[in-house]
Structures are given as C-alpha cells and as structure tokens.
Known about the structure:
This protein is of the alpha+beta class. It has helices spanning about 205-210, 220-240, 245, 265, 280-295, 310-315, 320-330, 355-370, and strands spanning about 1-5, 20-25, 30, 35-45, 50-55, 60-65, 70-75, 80-90, 95-105, 105-110, 110-115, 120, 125-130, 130-135, 140-145, 150, 155-160, 165-175, 180-190, 335-340, 350-355. α5 packs across α7 and α5 crosses α8.
Amino acid sequence: MVLAASVPSTGATARVPAAVGLSLTAQPLNGTAPFYVEFRATVTPGSLSATFEWSFGDGATYQEVATGYSEVGHSYLSAGTYATTVFVQSSSGNANASITVRAAPGTLSDPITATPSSGPAPLTVHFVGVISGGTGVYTAFAWRFGDGGNGSGTDLAYTYTLPGRYTASLTVVDSAGRNATSTVAVDVTPNESAAPAVGGSGVSPYVAAALPTAAALAGVAVLAVAFRARSLRRAARLDPTAAADVEGAPSATSAAVGVPPSPETMADEGQPRPGQDDSARLSERILVHLYWYGRPTSDGVVPADASQAGMARRLGVAQNALSKSLRRLIDAGAVRVELRHVSGASRRLKTYFLTPRGEAVARTMRAEHERHGRG
C-alpha cells in the first residue's frame, strides 16, 4: 500500500509544500501481536537529503538523516490499532504522511531469564522478563522471588542471602485484565567460606539467635527472651520498682506505652552491654532503621533512607562502618540487598531490606520497647 502526500486543504494543521513529495508504505498492515512491520518513506526528488522523524503509534519513535528514503522496522508487541506517522524536514520544505497498522490480540506471554541461576549464597541474580502479546498496554509487572521478596518491572536484580531452591515468578497483566505468569528456578548453595562466626563476629546476639544453625531451633522465641531480659534489667536500673518485674512480678514500668517510640529512640539503646562491641550495637540500629524506613512506596520507588548513604546520614555513622555491619547482617540472613530506583537519585542504587527473619527480629525489639517504655 502506498500513500502519497499532497497539499492539504485550507484549514489543515500541516503544511506540505508542493516542491516535496512523500510516499509511505508498510508491510504487513495487519497481523497478530507480536508482529513485525517494515516501513519505507520515500521523498521526491530522490536526491533530496532530509530528516525523517518516525512515530509508531505505541509510544516508540525513531529519527535519522537520509537521502531519498528511510527504511525502518518496528515490532508491535500488544494488540491495538496504531497510526504510524513520518515527518520529513528538508531544505526544500516539509512533508508528512501516516499509515494505519492493526495488531490482533495474541497470547500474552512473559518468559523470564535468571543470570546466574545457581551459585553460593549470597547470590545476586539478574532477572529479565520479555513481555509480548495481550491487549493494549501492560498495567502490572509483579515479581515473586520465592523467599518472601518481591519486585516490579521487567529488568531487575535480586539477592538471595540464604541457601535453598527458589522458584521466581513474574505475573503480567494487560489493559484487558488478562494475565500471564512464568517461573524460573534458582539454586542457592551454602557458602562455607562466608559462614559467620557467632562469637566476636560483630553481629548482634539478637541477630545471631536467628542464624540458621542448630542453636536457632527456637527461632525468634530465643531472641525475644534475650531481648526481654535485657529490657527488664535496664528498666530496673532506671526504676527500682521495676526490679519485681525482673523476677516475674508485674511492674508499673511494664505497662505498654500508648505512642510507639520513634526509630531514633528505638535505635538509641543507651550504653553497650559488657562484651558487646560497637559493630554489634550498630547491627541492631540498622534492623530498627530498616523496619521503619526500608519499605518501597506504592509506585515501587525506594526511599533514600534504604540506601547506604541514606542510612549513614540517618544513623550518624561513617558509611564504611555501616557497610561492614550490613555485610554481616546479609550473611546472617537478616537483610537482603537489591538494585532499585531510589527517590531523588538519577540511577539505580544498592538498597537494603529486611528478610522475614530480620523483620521478626526488629518486630520483637519494637514490641519490647512498647512494653517497657522509653525509660
């Protein structure tokens, strides 16, 4: 099919000088999405050098400078009726032409790849989803990584911190409400050389209690008991009447506080316990910080406080010290790291989130603070 541009009638918005001729062809004009179309725009005289500006009707554009003609190819991935337009600018004048392409609904599909698909923990995997078919535009891209983590988009990275076999999935929804789901398996093997030592490792005892070892069979219950005992001892030092609570009797200071403490108050636990180094205490503060600030917004953008720079600024510590504590928390299975879009940043940054184990630890710490007050 060939469309020849002509001088528009009076009142038309585009001005096409008679000195420039333009024809536009497309092959094929109809197909089932996804399908590929080849376009050719030819100007007369054929020796004319011009700028060709293409708009394919689905948001994609292309521009090139060529003599005589411009040939381009474009793939329509989802169903719809698209008006493809080419606008020509030259020293002899301007011209434009358009042609309609129709894509019938095809089967919505979203095959995904994972690179690498296996390796020792912690393992960062690059996931890519190739979406095609369906109707209109794609309205949702929901990733589930098999360990409780999730994400959005078609190209992203995710870090598995614990060994295991995980099934990652991507669910896509189109504008007609149809959905498709694809899965891929990821094998994360133990990394014996990176196994953290509980004693003197710089990991908080509360985090160490949640390590995947035989000592952690009691899980977060062990952590809760340890943290509660610590809170009661601190309450007893600040208020002698709380000593009865240490022995198991009720105390006035054990009443729940009506307003939850701020993250800064929760993080500020007073002086370190005997035998606890600063890095162990910092690991606790990081968990509390991420419990409050390390959650993506509804549009998938991560707050700056979930990045290393944001955490260092909020907690008032050097970034290199923070980096070491984060590494230990990741090894302990309490924190995971992802490359995500960060509020106010021009590129994706490493961001940090609590794993289910880390969130349980932070939640226990918060509950104890609410139970015993700020002191």
